[in-house]
Design a protein that fits this description.
CATH class: Alpha Beta
Number of strands: 7
Strand content: over 45%
Distance between the termini: 32 Å
Number of helices: 3
Radius of gyration: 14 Å
CATH architecture: Roll
Order of helices and strands: HHEEHEEEEE
Shape: globular
């Protein structure tokens, strides 16, 4: 496994750890300023500010609990760009609520900036489990 592939795997693990802790600043530090998230049935969410606003709105009534499992299927590195394909299962439980489970695949494009891999684009194909 190359150094870049190891760094990308660490980025994925750090993302999930920060999400589970409710560390929004930690998650934001793992993405480019021009990040775009593609979600089924919704308009694309663009940029860190939109992601931060959506995350804060979700946590406004208390921090949700996140449980996730990710299995990287493939990593491909091309200079300062890379993509990863994963199989992902997520369960989100709002305070006092019932868990909402989703699973499926993601295709993520990463860009190396300042020697660090950052999430630049993410196509999330998760469906209700």
């Amino acid at each position: 496994m190359t150094e870049d592939e190891q760094a990308i795997r660490r980025l994925v693990a750090t993302w999930f750890e920060a999400t589970k802790r409710g560390d929004l600043d930690g998650v934001l530090a793992l993405m480019t300023d021009d990040v775009v998230f593609l979600l089924p049935g919704r308009s694309p969410m663009m940029g860190k500010s939109a992601f931060a606003a959506a995350s804060r709105a979700q946590a406004a009534h208390g921090q949700p609990r996140f449980e996730s499992e990710s299995a990287i299927q493939e990593i491909s590195v091309h200079g300062d760009w890379a993509w990863i394909w994963t199989r992902l299962s997520v369960s989100i439980t709002a305070p006092g609520g019932q868990p909402v489970a989703r699973s499926g695949h993601t295709l993520t494009i990463l860009r190396k900036e300042g020697g660090r891999w950052l999430l630049a684009r993410d196509a999330n194909l998760l469906a209700n489990a």
